[in-house]
Amino acid sequence: RGSDGIRILHVSNSVLSSHKSFLKPSEFVKTDEFEKILEDIESSTETIFIVQGRLSTSGSVSLENQHPLNLDESYFFHNGIFLDDKEDSGKFGPSDSWVLFDRFTDKSLTPDSILNMESENSYALLDARNRKLQIGSNTGSMFLADNDQSGISIFGSEPVSRLIGVKIDEQLRGTKDFKILGAKQPSKFIDFEMGNNSFRKNEISGAD
């Protein structure tokens, strides 16, 4: 729903890719790059696909502040405003999302402590090194659904069960972990120009 850009992270065929663009989601889905993402997903037996159309609430609108935020082999999507820390600056300026991500990655704040936060936050944190995806929320605005027959699990900021043909949504308060395919050794960022919009893609090749 946000118009400040689109953020995508997906793991398909043991390759992890993140995509950041200032294009509106409705514009990005018309690009050849998005078509390639769908082809990769369709050809993979197991895949993770996270997409966020986000409206910036603090910090500058820049590629560095576009989600997923990335440190080493961790990737972070955040929805909310983190106000539980006196620090007002992240890695790339005054960004509450960077501050929260910093606290998770330096272990000064554990994700399980989200229920003790005074501010309202939901997030997805993918740790490629340890092959884990964790989602969390203290607001109840994270919805989960599973289709056991198709093997599909889905989550979002609104009820999502109908998208995979089931009737029950779990409303998450706390955290939930998912095991992911292994992917290591990040390669270089590649910048693309799409008209007046910058586009950044980062790939991690599949590895044991």
Topology:
Layout lengths: L5 E7 L2 E7 L3 H4 L3 H11 L4 E7 L15 E3 L2 E7 L15 H10 L15 E7 L4 E6 L5 E5 L4 E5 L13 E2 L2 E6 L10 E5 L2 E8 L4
Antiparallel strand pairs: 1-2, 1-3, 2-13, 4-5, 5-6, 6-7, 7-11, 8-9, 8-10, 12-13
Keywords:
208 residues, mainly beta, 5-stranded antiparallel sheet, 12% helix, disordered C terminus
Q: What does the model show?
A:
This protein has 208 residues and is mainly β. The protein contains three helices and 13 strands. It has a five-stranded antiparallel beta sheet with strand order 3-1-2-13-12, covered by helices on one side. The protein has a five-stranded antiparallel beta sheet with strand order 4-5-6-7-11, covered by helices on one side. β4 and β5 form a beta hairpin. The longest helix has 11 residues. The chain is globular and about 40 Å long. The C terminus is likely disordered.
